[in-house]
Design a protein that fits this description.
This protein is about 35% helix and about 15% strand. The protein is an alpha/beta fold and about 300 residues long. The two termini are about 30 Å apart.
Length: about 300
């Protein structure tokens, strides 16, 4: 591990601090007592080699967690240049710089690298064949990162939910149920949902263990989006009649989706069940609504 110039341990450097993953890494590092520096895009643009070099020289991290990226799957069909710049060029530049400095790298990919034609959970060594721009940007990033930095860790994951921000499917399903509103959800797309704190804690463990290559990390259990919505609503003690199953074609999404993109793993890593994640999600959400939420949730 690289030695810092002072008596303190070198930090973990987190990119994309304002996104779902970036925020979760920042909070969980604080909970676990891990020194971390978290930077948003204004502080570190990962598509700039000069900005990356300056950040590595300034903070001298032992590892970089790349939580930045383009996340709008449908908009990517109309904005491919921006998507590839942020999701492919950025991680490639990070990998090149981290390799040159001897710094570990963790970056994230997606279940959307697969075409959905098989009906068993995809494993790490299954053929990736994306159907849309976003998925292709992630696949090209995987290839570029591991070519530039063979010791890098690339985590494929899927379908985030967590209580620390509102940008997720489970939050919107519960909000609709509480308001007595209909909630349409696709009933012919199968995914493996992922509770963000489980993903972050396990990814950190793998990084600390100096694991490398491609790993699949999702919670245990496969669901259609409609099944996930019903499970979340039922777990919260609400009326599941609000969930309206519909075929994916009814949503008019610009980017084609694989009908089956469940992730499994031949690495032997399984996160807790989706049901367990939902119970903890609701507990976290209640903490945030309390009169005195824990300080770590406010930072």
């Amino acid at each position: 591990m690289k030695t810092a110039p002072s008596t303190t341990l070198p930090p973990l450097l987190i990119t994309g601090s304002n996104g779902t993953l970036g925020r979760a890494f920042r909070l969980i590092c604080r909970i676990r007592g891990l020194e971390a520096v978290s930077l948003d895009r204004a502080a570190l643009d990962i598509t700039s080699a000069d900005a990356i070099e300056e950040a590595l020289r300034t903070y001298q991290p032992w590892a970089v967690v790349n939580a930045a990226g383009y996340v709008r799957v449908d908009a990517a069909e109309d904005e491919p240049s921006s998507c590839y710049q942020q999701n492919t060029t950025g991680p490639s530049l990070l990998a090149q710089a981290c390799a040159a400095h001897g710094v570990a790298l963790l970056t994230f990919s997606s279940d959307l690298v697969f075409d959905g034609k098989q009906r068993r959970a995809y494993l790490e060594n299954d053929l990736a064949r994306p159907l849309n721009v976003y998925g292709n940007s992630k696949l090209l990033a995987e290839q570029a990162v591991l070519a530039q930095h063979p010791k890098a860790l690339v985590v494929r994951t899927s379908s985030f939910f967590g209580a620390w921000d509102e940008h997720n499917f489970v939050h919107h399903a519960l909000a609709a149920a509480r308001q007595g509103q209909a909630f349409p959800a696709a009933d012919n797309v199968v995914i493996t949902p992922t509770y963000v704190p489980d993903l972050v804690n396990t990814s950190l463990d793998l990084l600390l263990d100096e694991e490398r290559g491609i790993w699949h990390l999702t919670n245990e259990g496969t669901y259609t989006w409609a099944e996930l919505a019903r499970l979340a609503v039922a777990t919260a003690g609400l009326d599941t009649a609000c969930v309206v199953p519909q075929p994916v074609a009814a949503f008019g999404w610009a980017a084609p989706r694989p009908g089956f993109s469940a992730l499994g793993s031949n690495q032997g890593i399984l996160l807790p069940s989706v049901e367990s994640g939902l119970h903890r999600y609701l507990a976290d959400a209640q903490l945030l609504l309390s009169a005195n939420p824990p300080a770590f949730l406010l930072g």
